[in-house]
Design goal:
Oligomer: homotetramer
Order of helices and strands of chain A: HHHHHHHHH
Keywords (chains A, B, C, D): DNA-binding
CATH architecture of the largest domain in chain A: Orthogonal Bundle
Largest interface: A-B, 55 and 54 residues
Largest sheet of chain A: none
Protein name (chains A, B, C, D): HTH tetR-type domain-containing protein
Number of strands of chain A: 0
CATH class of the largest domain in chain A: Mainly Alpha
Radius of gyration of chain A: 22 Å
InterPro entries (chains A, B, C, D): Homeodomain-like_sf, HTH-type_Tx_Regulator, HTH_TetR
Organism (chains A, B, C, D): Dictyobacter alpinus
CATH topology of the largest domain in chain A: Tetracycline Repressor, domain 2
GO molecular function (chains A, B, C, D): DNA binding
CATH superfamily of the largest domain in chain A: Tetracycline Repressor, domain 2
DNA sequence: TATGAATGAGGTTTCATTCAT
DNA sequence: GATGAATGAAACCTCATTCAT
């Protein structure tokens, strides 16, 4: 009997927690959809709760404000991005920029909606984690673990990471408008640019 | 007498026009200052009119809404950018990417406040003209007028322009945070990256 | 066996009742603490249930709303006040105002927190029993049982009770701010004022 | 022409100011009415603006929040009370408690609605000026300027003022419930109590 | 009986926009 | 053309209350 009541108790606790988690997930999914459609600033709490089919107040049971929901969303995805890219890169013998960039583009493609929101929100939202920083951080790691560090002696690594991030971010924005090419072609083009640069004839007078 | 009054009239007209133009300029200058300080979304019309020391209603005599004022501001600056870059490039014998990028960075540096607003606002503002587009357009022109067009045969020119724009935009954002290096070093680093790419050892397995 | 189960049943019932009473007491104690700290209006049900360490819903198993909890609290204390003052007064040979006022001040001093809430809440709470009424009622009883009723012939007794209550209430509020003097000095000062009034020179022209 | 335009200008300014003042007065009058009817806490901004027949936003053009409006109201009335009582007292040859108390009761009677709100709000509202303090301050002044100061040597003047205030406040609350007697009778009864105290037989055992 | 997640009415507050002067 | 008081839609957020577990 004692055991029984205990079991009931934990079950009860568990049910509550499960329901709570479900609602939270619904809210995040709804937020993602609405943010993608209307952008951060034109999205109201009501928009989100209606999309999630919950009461307004429920939102505040899970997030302090719009900012927190947004950050949670972004953090979650970029945490996954980071982990996934790291995993994918590890599965190869050595860390190469090629694999990293490919991995980023693939992941970004799969999560286009969130990436475009995150990039579009730019410096607008008081966010703890910026997309660009996540990407740049990953790139820095690649640079630091380069097989021949001497090759990078003359480069300012953080700046380099930032510039390369610019190319990647722009690629993702490009997708948001154009809906082509696929992630692998995109990665390929970016990598081609990064590997060989542009034709010398563009830089010098005839 | 008729002439006299006519003259007076035109003078008065002229005065009115000058006064109007002055108010408008005040508003734009104020908008620029406030946007730079508080960002697009946190700036209210009242913020602008107070900074310009005019009545709220006056704003609406010159602009339909905040968006229009913002776009006017951006357009103006980018129009100047475009003209200036074109002029500077023309003063050289041939259009080269080096000169173009240098010119862009110099101009951007001189107008850092507006550039950072424009870049930070990202896709937030329902704007017809995006900074990135202005830059990309300029780059496309450079690519099209390349001295040896055959060199670019294998490139997707618009995408290329977009990616290069990403590098430039990121460079400007870098400034907004770091306040170093100067425009010419920045252009140099970007050009180095664009000209030679990164060391091959980053791309391949050992 | 029947008896046994019955016994068990009643025991269980009893346990339940005791548990229930405990919860209720916890809630009242918590309410008292929170009301004293934050005031009636700034106290939410959640504040109370958290302080009592019970679920929100539990509150509603014991009280209809905040008002009822508040009234219960107040009623309880004033019921005790009434009983105690009556008992103390009875222990003397005759009812005198001195003993009554002293008794009230002593009791109020012992329960300062609740008295200050009750007085501060003023007419804010839709309450059936006002502190002032409880005191006034006690005073009326004293007046009615006066040893020489003729002495009070010219007085409007309810109004008199009300005015004297005003003095007492103000004395308690004074404590809340000043934290001095003790209950007996306070009673003494009030009684001195009530017994002899103020110097005649204050009322007339020289 | 210059004069003309100047005149026009000041007139225009003046009109605006007049309109503004009118609206503000409307809001205060409405607030007074609603506060008196529903009490401080049950009054919403909307209640006030609807009663004043202005838009919601207009309220915030004149007051920061409900508190400020309330305080303005109270301050205004008590400022008038103070001035009026002072004036009335001055018109007599010497300051006496009789005149002061009479004056307070008369004024309170004329402004019953506000007094009852102010007294009922008790310590609820974060107010800079409490009614009781205003009255007590006035009484202290009377005591200090007593014709024969020696008579008050044995009294704690601030406490005394506070206690007397209690009597007056209670008198006003009495009116709010009972609607009788008039101000002068009320003052008379209070003064009688204050002058002679209660019959000695109430205090001692037979 | 106790719980606490969910609800949504209702309050506060802001601000783009209008319009009489 | 310039002004700024007034407007009210629309956002935010809280909290008393319910109800399934």
């Amino acid at each position: 009997m004692k055991d029984n009541s205990k079991e009931e108790f934990t079950t009860r606790q568990h049910r509550g927690a499960k329901r709570r988690a479900k609602t939270r997930a619904d809210l995040l999914a709804a937020a993602r959809k609405v943010f993608a459609k209307k952008g951060y600033h034109d999205t109201s709490i009501l928009d989100i709760t209606e999309a999630a089919d919950v009461g307004v107040g429920t939102f505040y049971l899970h997030f302090r404000d719009k900012d927190e929901a947004f950050n949670t969303l972004i953090d979650e995805v970029f945490h996954i991005l980071e982990e996934q890219v790291i995993a994918e890169v590890r599965s190869h013998e050595a860390i190469t920029l090629s694999v990293t960039v490919q991995s980023i583009f693939r992941h970004a493609y799969a999560q286009r909606d969130l990436f475009s929101i995150a990039l579009a929100s730019g410096a607008q939202v008081s966010r703890t984690i910026r997309v660009e920083d996540t990407i740049a951080r990953g790139l820095i790691r690649v640079f630091e673990q380069a097989s021949r560090p001497a090759d990078l002696q003359d480069y300012d690594i953080p700046l380099l990471a930032c510039l390369v991030t610019g190319v990647i971010a722009q690629g993702i924005i490009w997708w948001f408008d154009q809906d082509e090419p696929g992630p692998d072609e995109m990665a390929e083009k970016v990598l081609a640019l990064l590997a060989h640069g542009l034709p010398a004839s563009l830089f010098t007078l005839t």
